[in-house]
From TrEMBL:
It comes from the Bacteria. The chain crosses the membrane at residues 89-108, 120-142, 148-166, 173-193, 199-220. It is a multi-pass membrane protein. Belongs to the CDP-alcohol phosphatidyltransferase class-I family. GO terms for molecular function: CDP-diacylglycerol-serine O-phosphatidyltransferase activity. Gene3D superfamilies: 1.20.120.1760. This is CDP-diacylglycerol--serine O-phosphatidyltransferase. Its EC number is 2.7.8.8. It is found in: Endomembrane system. Keywords: Lipid biosynthesis, Lipid metabolism, Membrane, Phospholipid biosynthesis, Phospholipid metabolism, Transferase, Transmembrane, Transmembrane helix.
Amino acid sequence: MSRWVPSLLTLTNLFFGLIAIALSENGRVGAASILILSGMLIDAFDGRVARFLKAESEFGRQLDSLADVVTFGVAPMAVLYSLCLRNLGIFGALVGLIFPACGILRLARFHVENGPRRYFIGLPITAAGGVSAALALCYNLLPEPSVFLPVCVLLLSFLMVSHVRYPNFKRISFPQSALIGIPLLALGVYLVVRYGHSFAGSLVVLAFLIYLVFGAARALRKQRFDKEESLDEKSLPPSNVNP
């Protein structure tokens, strides 16, 4: 029975995504965004629980990817399309299609990567979908949202298929991760109830922004280091070796 627990968690994540899509079609973007962010927490635990219960399987990995595409690829764009992208005509539709397409490419690359995954190559679709949902929550606080949101979506799409390295927090195993996740969930619920969607969404965006900047800054630093190292090698005088 325990081997089905991770799959049940993954299916819950999938159901959250499907419900979020339905809610966004009815204009309930706040509730839809909260479901997407809740799906993030579930997605953070299903793999850890599978490893903890020794219930990892190829079926579970494929199911997790399908759930990720729905909850963090399609659902966030359904929310943003209902919110503002639909008013941008064909351009808005293209933006809404590019995002899940890049997410699928990101997941496909993830599955063919070999070796230990100490970091993610490219922004995980979970994080990209979470940022999109959080932006929808604080929509009223954004400057020129009809311009700002499409630009953010295209940037997130690019980061998903980029080679920028991001920290892999999935290395924190269960049940230690629960000691972090459960208090964060309680804090999130409190902030939504106490201060409303916009304030809570702003804090989530800030947290993701730190994550995004960390990955980009690390990539720029590595590129600069490699360039300086290459210049140093070229500046070295040729060695005179007598045969």
